[in-house]
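Your task:
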Amino acid sequence: MFSGGDNKTRARIDTLIGKNSRVTGDLQYKGGLHVDGEIRGNVQAEEGSDSMLSLSQHGAIRGQVKVPHLTINGTVEGDVHAEKRLELGPEARITGDVYYNLIQIAVGATVNGKLVHKPAGPTLAVNNPKSKAAGG
């Protein structure tokens, strides 16, 4: 939406929540979700899916968001978990902690919370040669 990247992930929208719509309650989905309206509840993509969520400048989510691919240009009041990629547009407003693997932040976006890098996949253990030398 804001940059090139993986168009295959962002191209397909299966579900649309329109500008004049409000969803109250948790939402679980698979595929592509675009939100122009408001969601009052947690939003979570199906575990292990390659789902995406696009939140427009008119949209708002009041709850926790857990989605692999996220593009936010609206308001989120809650923690955000982006397992793979997070793009924050110039009108993005997040009140909560943000957990991400890859992140792109446009000038004007605001986050009122912590930014926590969570690499995808296994992390490599670093061998410390000093500890071996000290141990014998």
